[in-house]
Amino acid sequence: MAGGWLLDGQQLLMDAIMTVPYIAAMIVDKQGYVVFVNRTYLKMLKRTEKETLGKHVSEITPNSRTLEVLKTGKAIIGYYWPINGYEGVASSIPLFKKGELVGCLAYSIFLDVWDGKTLMENLVNELNVYKKEITSLYASKYTFDAIIGESQALQKVKKLACQVANHPDTTVLITGESGTGKELLAHSIHSASSRARFPFVKVNCAAIPDNLLEAELFGYGEGAYTGAKKGGKPGKFEVANGGTVFLDEVGDMSLAMQGKLLRVLQEKEMERLGDNKPIRVNVRVIAATNRNLEEMVEQGRFREDLYYRLNVVRIHMPALRHRSGDIPLLVKYLLCKLNKKLKTSVMGVSAPAMERIMKYSWPGNVRELENVLERALILAEMSGSKTITPEYLVLMNDRANASAVSFGKGLKALTEEFERQVIARVLEETDYNKMEAAIRLDIDVSSLYRKIKRYGLGIGKGAGV
Ligand SMILES: Nc1ncnc2c1ncn2[C@@H]1O[C@H](COP(=O)(O)OP(=O)(O)OP(=O)(O)O)[C@@H](O)[C@H]1O
């Protein structure tokens, strides 16, 4: 079909173009007579090859700008090209041989015709597969059934959470001590809401340094900084589109980041870093903190306007010591869960061990209970016991012990004892990450190191102090 003046390489290219289903392509010679036309073009023209080859371009497609190109020798890229009821974007490119203009290539991409449609469908299907994968990657892991406890306090929490689940746009603030199940509750709210088939994306605001947190939340554009990924990177707000963003430890966000978050919550729109294209944000925000936000607002450490934006529905997770009636149920549930995880078969807890568990104050709440039981279970299994007895329970600040220790001690010694226990607990909870522990304790890292040395707490992972 091509004219005889084409080079071998060009011939190969033309053969390829000939078979591409969604590109309409035509070549005319320098006078404007058709010397090449592909199948897609013929379908659009509703002509046969015989009726087209050798005809003048003005007769075949009067809206083409090919003749202009033949006159000027300059390419015209991306012009509007209506033909036979279709609308396309065409380009006309001059062809030269040994510096002399020999013709013009005109082509247009039509995605709404024939195989182009199939291509589009394939792309959409592929996109849906990726969307599904992202959703399952970020699927919420828990429902309300996973929240164990029948105390009145917990029932109240679950009832309120169920109600708010039915309002998928309402921002929720979950407060409570560390380990009380705030994240568990956030997952459950998402799972019970109409956003459940979209992602649940968690961001730990305390664990990420400020300069990285912004990119984590909002993503960055291609040219945001040297070495930025091609095409940029979506932030968690974009990934969660349609679903829920869970901002854990929101009280640990810097004031600067608080301002940026507030803007997104107010305008429901954000921009990637280094990119000024606005992106619509359709997510529910659930924030959680173990800090006293009211106090932080008073001290100027938390923005009042953001506080009100987050505090639309407030759910407080009660501390375990305030609902000790839930402990037996939790122990039963956790033993079952841990036996499965550790492939052990420790069946129960002796009455004296349960008494000790019930008396303990559980400063680390359910997380601490789970950790203590895990250790006890391993110790019991190692000793061949099927029951957890008091000697397998390693408790940090047993109330009974605390009062024994406190008896006859001065305030300074008691304060130090308390400080030691708190630091030990936070270190354990943060997996001995000193940076994170220092942030949680609200002291600087150097003084944390001094205290670790002083109290002999240099145990655990990375504790090279
Ligand atoms: N009511 C509960 N029933 C069963 N498991 C629970 C319950 N509450 C908490 N847990 C378990 O305790 C652990 C800690 O819970 P979670 O991470 O939700 O607490 P959190 O309040 O978000 O803690 P932090 O403030 O430290 O992030 C998890 O393993 C969770 O599954």
Question: Could you explain how this protein is built, in words?
Answer:
By secondary structure, this protein is α/β, with parallel strands linked by helices. The protein has 4 domains: 8-114, PAS domain (Beta-Lactamase); 140-318, Rossmann fold (3-Layer(aba) Sandwich), CATH 3.40.50; 322-395, Orthogonal Bundle (Helicase, Ruva Protein, domain 3), CATH 1.10.8; 397-465, Orthogonal Bundle (Arc Repressor Mutant, subunit A). The protein contains 20 helices and 16 strands. It has helices at 8-19, 39-45, 49-52, 57-60, 66-72, 114-137, 152-165, 182-191, 210-218, 236-239, 255-267, 293-298, 304-310, 327-342, 351-359, 365-382, 399-406, 411-429, 434-441, 445-454; strands at 23-29, 34-37, 76-83, 86-97, 100-109, 172-175, 200-204, 219-220, 233-234, 244-248, 269-271, 278-280, 284-289, 313-316, 348-349, 387-388. The strands form 5 sheets. Strands 2-1-5-4-3 form a 5-stranded antiparallel beta sheet. Helix 7 (152-165) packs across helix 8 (182-191) and helix 14 (327-342) crosses helix 16. The protein starts with 7 loop residues before the first helix and ends in an 11-residue tail after the last helix. Mean pLDDT is 85; it is low at 399-407 and 459-465. Adenosine-5'-triphosphate binds at residues 147-149, 176, 178-184, 248, 288, 290, 366-367, 370.
